[in-house]
Structures are given as structure tokens and as C-alpha cells.
Amino acid sequence: MHGMNSDFAPTDLTHHFLIAMPGLKDELFGKSVVFLCEHSPRGAMGLIINKPSHLTVGELFEKVDLPLRRSELAPQPVLLGGPLQTDRGFVLHPAMGAVQAVGSDHTPPAVARALREALAGLESDDAAQPERDASARNEQPVDDPNVQPDAPPDAQSEASAPSALPSAYAASLKIAGSGLEMTSSRDVLEAMACGAGPSKMLFTLGYASWGEGQLESEIGENSWLTVDADPALIFDTPLAQRYEKAMALLGLQSWMLAPGAGHA
């Protein structure tokens, strides 16, 4: 765990929570918990995990003209992931290689057979064309099948360790040390439309980003507490409890912290 009232900030806060100090007065970031997907000397990128938007997952699927054959996901809120690219969707989920996705518990047998056949075809095609241009892949964003916005900063920076397995999805960032990945391509929604996809997911619109040295400066100003991320808090904790539960990871409750106070 890490406190904010210090001149020292860890080199890499990837797979950590940022917990807003009570003194941080901001409509979006106040009382927020941010999961950091990427942190390097060039900056940081993350998703707020406790601020709901006006949409549910079911309504999101209606907007992108896809059925949702994962009924348990329909009432789940789509979150406000941050102030940038708020018209674009991001899905945080346990990492899934292509073979794992085919064998998912949420894949109906007929769909699994079709996926295996498609995967076999892709593998043979890849063997014949090892230098195939990546632009030929379908990497459409979640929110709009016709437009591909620029990826978030540092989305593929050196801070991310390469994975032994490729992602099951076209545009995913594997989050170093977490067993999680963040997907921004439409194919993850298409998998759910078939009743497949990851077993646990968090949906956001937009993301948060910090430039070089910006996050470290905010940490030094006692705007944030940091702690190792707990996937159970991301996927299994009720939304309204996430802020206090994140504080509890540090042995704290928000009332203990006066504005401007830190934790060593």
C-alpha cells in the first residue's frame, strides 16, 4: 500500500487503485476509485470504476443494434470511465486467449463449434501469411462500427509485459501483473451477443489520462491514495460500496481523513 503524503511515488502503479482523497472536490473524480491500466514515465491511463452513467448494459446493446444473450448483464450499469472519449466504450475483464474464449462457460455448444472452425481457419491463414498487414483485421470500436478513434495514450507502451497468449479480441490492452485486459473493439460485444464472452466484465464510457509527471504531482499534493488493485472490488462489490471498500484496503474509512491529510 502507498500513502500520498510523501515525496516518493512508486515507479509503476499499473494494476493499482487511485482513491480520491476526501478533499478532492471534482464532479467526476470526487470520491472516485480509478483502476490504473497503464502507468509509465510518459503518463498514466485508467478507468473510474464507481461512477454510473445513465445507461445500463442492456440499453448500450440496444444502441449498438446487438442482441444481448447474457441476461445477467442487462441491468449492470455502464460506468463513466473518465472525461476523455466519452462516446467510446471500454470493457475491463479477465484476460482471455483465443482458445480460452472458445472454451468459455458462456459459449453455447453450437457457437463454440463455429468459433473453433473459425479459429482453425484463422490459424491456418496466419501460418500461410505470417506478415499479414494488421490493418486487415476488424478492429472496430465498441461504440461505433464505422469509426476507429485513436487509442488512449500509452495503450501499448513498454510498461506492458507481453502475454504468452494473444487476446481473444482485436483491440485489447493486457494489463501487466493483473490477469486483466481492457478491450475497446466491437468484437467483445459481438461475443456477448452470441451468449459468449468473458465471465466477468465492467463497462465504461470514456477513460482518464495523465500526462508525463501529472499523476505523480497530484499524488504529491495529497489528491490520491494508492493501493494494489483487488479484482473482487472491481467485479463483485456493489457500486455504492466501492469507495469505502477501497479505503478499507488501506485500513481506513473516509471519515478518518481530513481534507489535505495523507497516509504514510
Characterization of this structure:
This protein is α+β, with helices and mostly antiparallel strands and 264 residues long. The chain has a single domain (16-256), classed as 3-Layer(aba) Sandwich (VC0467-like). 22% of the residues lie in helices and 23% in strands. It contains 7 helices and 10 strands. Strands 1, 2, 3, 4, 5, 6, 7, 8, 9 and 10 form a 10-stranded mixed beta sheet that branches. A hairpin with a 4-residue loop joins strand 7 and strand 8 (180-183). It is globular and about 50 Å long. The relative contact order is 0.27.
Number of domains: 1
CATH class: Alpha Beta
Structural class: alpha+beta
Estimate percent helicity: 10-25%
Mean pLDDT figure? 78
Shape: globular
Task: Measure the end-to-end span.
Answer: 9 Å
Number of separate helices: 7
Number of strands: 10
Largest sheet: 10 strands, mixed
Poorly predicted residue ranges: 4-9, 98-141, 144-164, 260-264
CATH superfamily: VC0467-like
Question: Could you list some keywords that capture this structure?
Answer:
alpha+beta; AlgH-like; globular; 7 helices; 264 residues; 10 strands; 22% helix; UPF0301 protein SMCB_1570
